[in-house]
Design brief:
Radius of gyration: 19 Å
Strand content: 25-35%
Helix content: 25-40%
Largest sheet: 6 strands, antiparallel
Number of helices: 6
Strand order of the largest sheet: 5-4-3-1-6-7
Number of strands: 8
Low-confidence stretches: 3-11
Length: 196
């Protein structure tokens, strides 16, 4: 009887602590070595980053039209939800160098992210600009909505995570501190890939 009362008392706390997982999905930037390989947006410093928010749902930020140097002349970017397969076909390459970072979160954190980012799918919250918000800074923003990372101003996010390698390095440090799982896959030998 005492065990039952204790269990009923602790049940709300157990439910709150149930864990879920967010996965940062990363495609490394590259440039072609072989003549039959195509050039990618951003070259070696390019690539793409998104956040897997469901079993087969990756939320990522893409240009919504014209991409200029600054926010003033750029069109508003768009958040999309793609399947994992669609996300990894962003550059239409067969074998890409990838990395996945698995971040355990509570169900409350995940629900906060989903609620706070729902409006982003209807209308992008900011322009997509070369010296502005792009996929890495936008992914950081999503992680901050789930209270995984600190809340930063848009300009700080922009400059701190201006391209994917910067966010990768930051997340690798966090993963080492917090014991997050990381999975990597090598890319095609026909391309020169960005490094960590």
């Amino acid at each position: 009887m005492k065990k039952m009362i204790l269990y009923l008392f602790l049940l709300p706390f157990i439910c709150q602590a149930q864990t879920d997982t967010l996965v940062v999905e990363i495609i490394y930037g590259s440039k072609p070595i072989a003549k039959n390989e195509s050039h990618w947006f951003g070259g070696k410093l390019g690539g793409h980053i998104g956040l897997r928010i469901g079993k087969d749902s990756v939320m990522h930020f893409v240009p919504g039209g014209r991409v200029a140097a600054t926010n003033i002349n750029s069109d508003t970017g768009s958040y999309l939800i793609s399947s994992t397969k669609q996300f990894y076909r962003t550059f239409r390459a067969d074998t890409t160098k990838t990395c996945r970072i698995f971040i355990p979160v509570s169900s409350t954190q995940k629900q906060k992210l989903l609620n706070d980012s729902k409006s982003f799918l209807k209308e992008g919250p900011y322009p997509y600009a070369f010296f502005g918000m792009r996929c890495a800074a936008a992914c950081y923003h999503l992680l901050s909505l789930a209270d995984v990372t600190k809340d930063l101003s848009r300009s700080k996010m922009t400059w701190k995570f201006i391209y994917p390698r910067k966010l990768r390095k930051y997340l690798f440090k966090e993963a080492a501190k917090k014991g997050w799982k990381i999975e990597r896959t090598p890319g095609s030998t026909k391309r020169k890939w960005d490094h960590d």
